[in-house]
Amino acid sequence: MTHAKRLLFLLLAGLLPLRLLADVKLPAIFTDNMVLQRESEVKLWGTAAPERTVRITTSWDGARHEVPADAAGHWTATVRTPEAGGPHTITFTDGRHPVTLSNVLIGEVWICSGQSNMEMRVGDRVTGMEQELAEAEGYPEIRLLHIDNTTSPAPLAEAKVRDGGWQVCSADHVRDFSATGYFFGKELHRELGVPVGLIETCWGGTLAEAWTSGDALWDIPAFRDRVAKARTLPATPEERTRIFHEDLDRWRDEMATVDPGYRDSKPLWAASTFDDTAWGEIQAPGFVQHQGLGSFTGGFLWMRRTVEIPAAWAGKELTLELAVIDDNDFTYFDGVEVGHTEGCMAFRRYTVPASLVRAGRVTIAVRVMDTGGLGGIFGDPKSMSLRTADGDVLPLAGTWKYHLGLGLGEAPELPVNTATEPNFPSFLYNAMIHPLVGYGIRGAIWYQGEANVARAAQYRDLLPLMIRDWRSRWGYDFPFYIVQLANYMKVQEGPEESEWAELREAQTATLRLENTGMAVIIDIGEADDIHPKNKPEVGRRLALQALAKSYGRPVLCSGPMYAGCTLGGGEIRIRFSHTDGGLKTVDGGVVKGFCIAGGDHRFHMAEARIEGDEVIVRSPEVAYPVAVRYAWANNPVCNLTNGTGLPAGPFRTDDWTDGK
């Protein structure tokens, strides 16, 4: 009996499910309009009837490839792509109904990943948004694939995609696509003259460990317990949600017995009737450590603000916005909890039920949980408000009352909803990277780090680990280009200790890996917005890295980078690489941004002058300088550049902790 007759017999006998005779099925990342990496061996895969032969015909060469499906119906094929061009078609069949992909281009494919600054869309009022949207139709050879935000405790075979798969560049699709990714791809397309495919897979407020596989994370002891837990979790979100709610109920009961803000299991400090006149005052938005609470290194902080609800608002549903909170929050309106969010980069927007809204004085209270580093409510003051559906607004930025609650060590561990939480180690790798493994790419760009600023020392190991992890999965050391964190928060003209500077240093250390590069953007951040809007320049600087290092183009891709120093004569002479066109200041004035210290480890702002390709620094307050720092602050005043106009990268020559 032939194979076909045997299948027919089993089907008629009711012994073979109909699904096993399905036509060829392709993963959601293989669709019309896709871009395949040029001049390479690319993988194609999918499912078919078990043990059937799948025939693949590629229009660019007319070749027919035959591969067998295994007993479970899975098959994989490798085809050789030609030079850039198209459009082409690819046809798949196992002898029944063929599947044809149309309008396929051959060109350059890049993954665009990270957190909210990579996720920030062209339509999010980025610089030049209107013009970019108006011109988008003129770039039909730029193609966009948007991976949907998904989590999983185990690696998935299939990715969830938005808009049905690959899309041709247009105003509608560009509007909702990564601005950094789009401007990077647009610059490559202009310079190379070939089709460019961009795969956006990113999620705001996410940690680097969430984008790394569990197998790789096992190398870092701090993650082993959570990696082990992930491997025991149920597969279904429903079951994981049930477990979380049980754990959270237990946590709430425990907290009600130990949190001084509770009495008789009720949130006393959230009630509008509570007298908070003895509490301190603090400005929101603003990190609490910058407002006299530098000793607060983690725990629970209660914040309250009393407002007057207009009579016309009574009985109306309201929207409560609290910008961004570092790290987690429990938010109350008139003593009733209306929201809880975990994650230091997530925007807080909660619904206040109409039944709670009454005219008169009402208190909004937030129990902030800070897990380390900076904490509190931060972001755009305009993003703190109560709003009606009619558009009436009651601003909430300004003076709040505050009181310290529990320290982290005094509180039970907060459970995590593993059904929805993206920041569990390996969860985003499993759902948003693993399903892409094997798809032919030229490389990846990465814009992330804000969520990891409190653990810069760990990031030195974590980011290189993640890069090596991805490369090992694809089977080759593809280029990996990162964006260094921008300047952010209050402008700092004097020396300061800075977690953001330490994280930038960890990003720079990643350049020791081969085939990597970094776009320095210490000059285009915004003091009041963690999401700088000049994404065209971010994309351009990433593209310069790729053009120079991946495509061999004769372009200058970096500003000055620290290369060493010499001590002597009461001065420090600093050497730089990437001094093309000579060292300069962006404004033509004196050099700013350097500070030096002697053996007492106390830093002072330095006088600096340029001599050729070196900078010499000194200070009358430091007779025998031993260390120098440049642009070492959250938002430093600095102006060193080279002939390209690209800024010098921040650095330090010491490894002191808190200036000691």
Main sheet specs: 11 strands, mixed
Low-confidence parts lasting 5 or more residues at pLDDT below 50? Answer: 1-5, 7-21
How many distinct helices? 12
> At CATH's second level, what is the architecture of the largest domain?
3-Layer(aba) Sandwich
* Helix share bin: 10-25%
- CATH topology title of the largest domain: Rossmann fold
CATH class of the largest domain: Alpha Beta
What does the average pLDDT come to?
93
Task: Summarize the structure in words.
There is one protein chain. The chain starts with a helix and ends in an 8-residue tail after the last strand. Helix 5 crosses helix 12 and helix 10 packs parallel to helix 11. It folds into 3 domains: 104-233 and 418-557, Rossmann fold; 248-410, Jelly Rolls (Sandwich); 561-652, no CATH class. Helix 11 (499-509) links the parallel strand 25 and strand 26. Helices cover 19% and strands 30% of the residues. The radius of gyration is 28 Å and the shape is globular. Strands 1, 3, 4, 6, 7, 8, 9, 10, 24, 25 and 26 form an 11-stranded mixed beta sheet that branches. The model is unreliable at 1-5 and 7-21 (pLDDT under 50). With 660 residues, it is an alpha+beta fold. It contains 12 helices and 36 strands.
Task: Present the secondary structure layout.
Layout (H helix, E strand, L loop, with lengths): L2 H10 L22 E3 L3 E7 L5 E6 L5 E5 L5 E7 L4 E9 L5 E16 L1 H4 L9 H7 L6 E5 L20 E2 L2 H5 L3 H14 L3 E7 L11 H4 L6 H7 L6 H22 L3 E2 L2 E2 L12 E5 L14 E11 L8 E9 L1 E6 L2 E6 L5 E6 L7 E11 L5 E3 L5 E5 L4 E3 L2 E10 L19 H7 L9 E5 L8 H19 L5 E4 L15 H11 L6 E4 L15 H15 L11 E8 L2 E7 L6 E2 L8 E4 L5 E3 L1 E5 L2 E5 L8 E4 L9 E2 L9 E2 L8
Parallel strand pairs: 1-7, 7-10, 7-24, 8-10, 24-25, 25-26
Antiparallel strand pairs: 2-5, 3-4, 3-6, 6-7, 8-9, 11-12, 13-23, 14-19, 14-23, 15-18, 15-20, 15-21, 16-17, 16-19, 21-22, 27-28, 28-33, 29-35, 30-31, 30-34, 32-33, 34-36
